[in-house]
Write a structure and sequence with these properties.
- One of its GO terms (biological process) is methylation.
- It is found in: Cytoplasm.
- It comes from Hymenobacter terrestris.
- Its EC number is 2.1.1.198.
- Helix 3 runs parallel beside helix 4.
- The chain contains nine helices and ten strands.
- With 254 residues, it is of the alpha/beta class.
- The protein has a five-stranded parallel β-sheet with strand order 3-2-4-1-5, sandwiched between helices.
Length: 254
């Protein structure tokens, strides 16, 4: 695939709250493509209206992507240029997109991903836990496999980032407190970039009580949990070999 090969599919990040958080390039691409693939056409329609763009919209989401991909590939093969967007943030991160990208690449269709808004980065930086090494866990399993996943996180030394829904955040905080320890520091960011943006940092058990006491919890949530303290193995002293030799000599003498 050469640099002159035309791009057929663009992954275009959209604002996670504040409509100003969209790049000039994203606006240009949305204005140039033949079709916009949207997780929710009503949400994306409002964004396009705000940007004063008129483009055909096609529904592409978790429940129809397997049916849509073969049809889209046929249209892409004929030269149609498409932009894939999610309701908020970068498509493909805990949102549909992977399947279409994989199949496009397998057929030699050029795919470009624009940089832009995503909720995990500001939540990570606002936590103050350090961004040198981190792991993005997305949404925890709702039922099957949830406890297994939680146990897998026990030895994790990197900062952990989760997406969570408002009605499950208390349960998740309580379970993490039980598995990782009630004093493990964590940060809950809610309504990022919006008018009532909030970030609360405290031990897991304290956070669970905080949110459990609220009459209601609104907005998408990013949960950041501090990793397990790294325990360095004890270093052998430079004289250990000789200490062992001296012990052997003493035993032989007896």
């Amino acid at each position: 695939m050469s640099e002159t090969t035309p791009t057929l599919l663009y992954l275009v990040p959209t604002p996670i709250g504040n409509l100003e958080d969209i790049t000039l390039r994203a606006i240009r691409i949305l204005g140039e493509v033949d079709l916009v693939l949207a997780e929710d056409t009503r949400t994306s329609g409002r964004l396009l209206q705000h940007l004063e763009l008129k483009k055909p919209l096609l529904s592409y989401h978790l429940h129809n992507e397997h049916q849509q991909v073969p049809r889209l590939l046929e249209r892409l093969a004929k030269g149609e240029v498409m932009a894939l967007v999610s309701d908020a943030g970068t498509p493909g991160i805990s949102d549909p997109g992977f399947l279409l990208v994989r199949e496009c690449l397998a057929r030699g269709f050029k795919v470009e991903c624009l940089p832009g808004a995503t909720a995990l980065v500001p939540a990570l930086l606002k936590s103050g836990f350090g961004a040198e090494r981190f792991t993005f866990e997305g949404f925890l399993p709702v039922k099957k496999g949830r406890q297994t996943r939680l146990q897998e996180l026990v030895p994790e030394t990197r900062t952990m980032i989760f997406y969570e829904s408002p009605h499950r955040i208390v349960k998740t905080l309580e379970q993490l407190a039980e598995v990782l320890g009630p004093e493990r520091l964590a940060s809950v960011s809610r309504e990022l970039t919006k008018l009532f943006e909030e970030t609360v940092t405290a031990p897991l058990a304290e956070l669970a009580k905080n949110f459990a006491a609220r009459p209601s919890i609104k907005g998408e949530i990013v949960l950041v949990v501090q990793g397990r303290p790294y325990e360095r193995p004890a270093k052998a002293t430079r004289y250990k070999k000789y200490d062992n030799d001296d012990q052997t000599d003493d035993d032989d003498a007896e």
